[in-house]
Design brief:
The complex is a heterodimer of chains A (267) and B (446).
Chain A lengths: L1 H12 L4 E12 L2 E12 L3 E5 L6 H8 L9 E9 L2 E2 L7 H7 E4 L10 H11 L6 H14 L3 H4 L12 H14 L4 E5 L7 H14 L4 E5 L3 H7 L2 E6 L2 E7 H6 L4 H7 L5
Parallel strand pairs in A: 3-8, 3-9, 6-7, 7-8
Antiparallel strand pairs in A: 1-2, 1-4, 4-5, 9-10
Helix pairs in contact in A: 4-5, 4-7, 5-7, 7-8
Chain B lengths: L1 H12 L11 H39 L4 E10 L2 H9 L3 H19 L9 H8 L2 H11 L7 E7 L2 H7 L16 H12 L3 E5 L1 H5 L14 H32 L4 H13 L4 H15 L7 H25 L3 H9 L4 H29 L3 H5 L25 H10 L3 H32 L4
Antiparallel strand pairs in B: 1-2, 1-3
Helix pairs in contact in B: 2-18, 3-4, 4-6, 10-13, 10-15, 10-17, 12-13, 13-15, 14-15, 15-18, 17-18
The chains are: A alpha/beta (267), B mainly alpha (446).
Bound molecules: adenosine-5'-diphosphate and magnesium ion.
Amino acid sequence: MYDADHNRTESRVSQNEIKISSRNVQVYYGDNHAIKDVDVDIEDRLVTAFIGPSGCGKSTFLRCLNRMNDTIPICRVEGDIHIDGEDIYDKRVDPVQLRAKVGMVFQKPNPFPKSIYDNVAYGPKIHGLAKNKSELDDIVERALKRAAIWDEVKDRLDASGTGLSGGQQQRLCIARAVATEPEVLLMDEPCSALDPIATGQVEELIDELKQNYSVVIVTHSMQQAARVSQKTAFFHLGNLVEYGETEKIFTNPQDSRTESYITGRIG
Amino acid sequence: MTDATANAAPAAGRRTSKSIIETDANTRKRNAAEARFRYYGMAAIGVGLFFLCALTFSILRSGLPAFTETAVTVDFTLSQEQFDEAEGQVLKTAAYEGFFVRELQAELNEEGASDVEVSEAAVGRIMGKVGSQIREFYRANPDRLGEEVSFTLPASSRVDRYLNGNLSREQLTNSRFLEPDDLDIVDGLVESGVMVNAFDWGFITGTDSGVDNPGGAGLGASIMGSFFMMLVVLVLALPIGVAASIYLEEFAPQNKFTDLIEINISNLAAVPSIVFGILGLAVFIQFAHLPQSAPLVGGLVLTLMTLPTIIISTRASLKSVPPSIRAAALGVGASKMQSVFHHVLPLAMPGILTGTIIGLAQALGETAPLLLIGMVGYVARQHPDGLASGLLDPNSAMPAQIYTWAARSDPAFYEKAWGGIIILLVFLLFMNAIAIILRRRFERRW
Ligand SMILES: Nc1ncnc2c1ncn2[C@@H]1O[C@H](COP(=O)(O)OP(=O)(O)O)[C@@H](O)[C@H]1O
Ligand SMILES: [Mg+2]
């Protein structure tokens, strides 16, 4: 089943255009050099997985892509990251606008302690995506449907988002992220707090989402990377060791460190 | 060498499994320690409760009498001729006193207590200057002459205390203010229902009296003074404190300067209140020439005092909002400001409000700084309106008024001081109740 999937995407891989390109990216936390010389081209309309042992800098690099690192005072980013050819660290870039274009889903589900409806409607509201209440209703419904949670919550949109189960909360967070019509979706270990059934639902969802977005997912689980991604980047101690087609990385890694990691000898 | 290994092997083999039904010495010791700790805790709470009860009891016992007032009600008819006659005399009030005593005796006879005989001298001791009160009434309302008017006139504070059981006959043997024989009259008046001990609204709504009239002293003006001060504190300290905390907690860069500010705020919270008082005296009164004894100045001083409390509690409640909420808001493209005002602040609200109300309650009970800006010892009676009524009119505050009463020599004022404490405590309890209600209302689970 996965094979068929991969064959299909492989033909598409070459056609996809580059959404994000990073060159020479360095990230420092004070004196700690957390990301070293990372060059990577992330393509549109497919899922890119970041894998690697804990502390190798996957989350750090992911946060560079929507400038969430700006909120960490000691964090310093060098190098170039372009999205659609525009330098996101340009002085003229408003990170708020960038984050509307590059949505993010976090490791721990973090719905606002508000109603399910308000959770999803918040982004569109502050970005002025809806002119009136019925348009907003449509956006909320579409986002919840796209996050495959509409059927479960359509009767209780006024209930608190924090009252949902873990898997539902994470899908609500995905709905919240897609509601602002982003072009890139960053996900930092979105399933690490979920049970296998919820994980399966979220993975299915990610597979759906790649039709409209460029999805970047950080994951601890190599099986998950193999299941959902078309391209995989392996990080080790702040370096991007290997980047390529997921299938190739898992069946025929070029670097010995990648091989050790996927066979379970490091990590 | 071989011995050692030979010994070790059977030892390992002989290892017996421990019974979990028999408690071993270690477990017994641990359980005993736990039980002991529980008893210590219960003892501590018991001691606390005992003192709370003792305090409440003694406050209520000493303070409740301040809320009642003994008064004599007499239906009185004064004709135009009697009025003219009295006004023609040299000792005018004595004439009115004569009329009053006559009416009082008539009232007693009517009630079937003719054996009680009242004299002008005794009435003067029991009731104070009734003559002048009656005269004042008729001079102000000459149209009531000839009609029946019901006068309710307060008895002296000693009679009050006698009826409340705080004054015995033995204590009166050589008092020129009240003689033991007068107490028989008082008993007779009470029995016939002419004299009643009733709830005294004047104590809550009235103004302070002079040292010579403890019975008429009320807390009303000081309540107004405290109210205006709290208004100033709320209007200034809440927005300034919350804005400063939000800036420090969410926006300020982490550097030496903000560290310094932080240390200063923590230290300010521990500065004795009298220091704020002298600062207020120097800055607001001597430098800025604001009026002395004004609730505005008191409010400003208390604002300075309350700010650190509000800032510290607000920052603590902002800190307790999980960072994931901020990340979530930023993640969907909210600006820093939007994430704070739409998400962080509402979640921190219960803590902020609780801190503010606790700060206000502290300010409400604060006395020392008020001593320095002259809000003590002001007698509101001197104010033209009777009840000091504005931010700039000189006034006192509840705790300062209590202090003033407690410092006066007449034991009746001592009673008033306790009564004032009851009112102050009721206000504090009320504010704490509001804090709890607000907390409940704003509390959210996540
Ligand atoms: N907020 C932070 N402040 C300081 N150092 C950090 C912070 N976040 C991550 N780091 C450091 O950066 C390195 C990479 O961390 P991270 O990106 O979280 O790794 P990963 O997500 O791959 O487990 C680690 O050495 C970690 O200690
Ligand atoms: Mg991580």
